[in-house]
Amino acid sequence: MLLMDKEPGFVPMRERGEPKDGAGKPAGKAPAIADAAETDRIAPETVGDITSKNAVIKVRGGNVHYGDTHALRNISLDVGRNEVVALIGPSGCGKSTFIRCLNRMNDTIESARVTGDFRLDGTDIYARDTDVVLLRARVGMVFQKPNPFPKSIYENVAYGPRIHGLASNRAELDDIVYGSLERAGLVNEVKDRLDEPGTGLSGGQQQRLCIARTIAVNPEVILMDEPCSALDPIATARIEDLIDELSQQYAIAIVTHSMQQAARVSNRTAYFHLGRLVEVGPTDKIFTNPSHKLTEDYVTGRFG
Amino acid sequence: MAMLTPAETRRRVDASLRRRYRSEWLFRLYGLVSVLLGVGFLLVLFATIIGNGYGAFRQVFIQLEVQFDPAVLDPEGTRQQDTLASADYSQLVKTSLRTLFPDAEDRTSRRELNALVSSGGAFNLQKMLLADPTLLGQTRDVWLPADDEVNVFVKGRGPAAGAGSGDEAQRLSDRQIAWIQTLESSGKLEQRFNTIFFTAGDSREPELAGIWGATKGSFFMLFVTLFLAFPLGVAAAIYLEEFASRNWLVDVIEVNINNLAAVPSIVFGLLGLAVFINFFGMPRSAPLVGGLVLTLMTLPVIIIASRAAIKSVPPSVREAALGVGASPMQMVFHHVLPLALPGMMTGAIIGMARALGESAPLLMIGMVAFVVEPPGGPMSPSTALPVQIYLWADSPERAFVERTSAAIMVLLAFLLVMNAAAVWLRSRFERRW
Prior knowledge:
The structure holds two protein chains of two kinds.
Chain A lengths: L35 H7 L12 E12 L2 E12 L3 E5 L6 H8 L9 E9 L2 E2 L7 H7 E4 L10 H12 L5 H14 L3 H4 L12 H13 L5 E5 L7 H14 L4 E5 L3 H7 L2 E6 L2 E7 H6 L4 H7 L5
Parallel strand pairs in A: 3-8, 3-9, 6-7, 7-8
Antiparallel strand pairs in A: 1-2, 1-4, 4-5, 9-10
Helix pairs in contact in A: 4-5, 4-7, 5-7, 7-8
Chain B lengths: L5 H48 L4 E10 L2 H4 L7 H5 L3 H12 L6 H8 L5 H12 L7 E7 L2 H9 L11 H4 L2 H12 L3 E5 L1 H5 L12 H32 L4 H13 L4 H15 L7 H25 L3 H9 L4 H29 L3 H5 L20 H9 L5 H31 L4
């Protein structure tokens, strides 16, 4: 298993040593049954319904190149309101690359080149006049490793609303902070120590703090990049409950390596393989009755 | 390949173990010896400097009964400030010495007698009288600094050494030594804390020379350097690390910054001479120009240290900030900079400490001049501490030997304080994540 590996050709932010999700292993090819050319042959286009009734995010023909590496090949997928879409697939298949396109975090990687039509509520994410700061306020992100700011718990949550000017006074800001912590299920654990550093919490609490920080900005979409991969099963269960609750309000795209987690939290599941979106469908169908051979091999544990 | 038996494996590991332990023991020994050698040399250095220099913190004073004689100071009785200021106060000292030792009758012995008291004694008397004109006509007991040779004699003579022994005695005549002993036995000669050393500017007379002028010059220079080099260096580092795109121009700039850090400092002095003094017409010997030159010298050091500090901030913090919608500048100023600041400040202080100890570029821009008056501002002529040390080390008077070492002690004390501040800042502001 190469669960922690990077997408092929992933270039860390400006050669800043450790790439974004920590593992220092070289980009490995999954021991897949198909190489890229074969994937092109046997999975030339996505099987299943890529559309969503209440689509917030609409992607058509999305391609990403990292230098010479073609990391995402012609992806089309919708993410709808009140919907959790799980992105699964072996390491290096482009899941993380895909969600990082949706809030333009790939902009920080100099060699990354994104083409295709990415839309948030009808507006082009990659249009020249799209403001990245506003985009990231509307599309929040939770990262693989909990990364609270080295500031107090209160400041962690208050930071986003403050820079975006969401609160006009201290009382409103307090409301946002308490509300966000409450929805992240953290308020009872931290309400007496809001001025202690966020980095002093346990891993699971830190990740919920990061979720509180994200929802404090009141986004429309939340992207989660393997949010539980650094957590123990109990913390994972809490986060999964939280995702369930959040899906009442937000569109959520979650990358996960745990098929059980995908099955538990998501409404739809998308299976990626070597940069291609092989199959999309309702989660129970993907796990019980997948249409494509590659999907079946993966979800039944034949490789990956 | 044949499998080794467990016993054979154990035997081979055992044999290699002994070799490994021996080489580890040897390596530790080398390390220990090097550390001890280093510490030993440092101790020798400190012992020499302190041994040579501690004497400079004491100064020999002679008590004289001085009559502020109106006939000498103000023969026409005008009581004008000008007349009093330009009067011949050394005459008062001479008269007072002669009443103390009436046995000095011929010219030679009188000159020898007068040589006991520093020529600066007259200035003390002048200052006293100008501060309080009612002293005119009165008689006061005044402690005046002794001449540098008297200093060397009194401090250098061990308790057991008698008059006329050793080469100390050759500088003073037997008569002078007898007078000194008379003064000592009557309690009119004593050693006191040397305030002159810390409050005066340079002087040709060792007993009147101090480091205050050089210290002030050094401080003015460091202020100029700090206020130019730190903001410029940090801004350059932030731009290069966070905003500049990778292209050949940035690569060229990076390579050149690294090269500049290795350029000999005297080259910066030549540059300062050509640009600041010859081209821009700034004054010679001014701490402002010195500060500018040291800024050029320190800038690469600060840029390199600041970039290392910025690089050490984990990328996850940047992603977190960008992820909630911080603009790149907000990311830098709210998150990256606070985390990188301790490292930046440490680098800046180390750079400043290097600038404080630098003398070669200052020689080029004329800060090696003989400056008596402590500078009033960054534009007035001045020297710096390391240059003052160089000047004194070059002087022929023996009394400058201990002053040179004392000035080195002061410089080292400043450097220690700065390095301690760097350590303190790092431990105080370093945050963990």
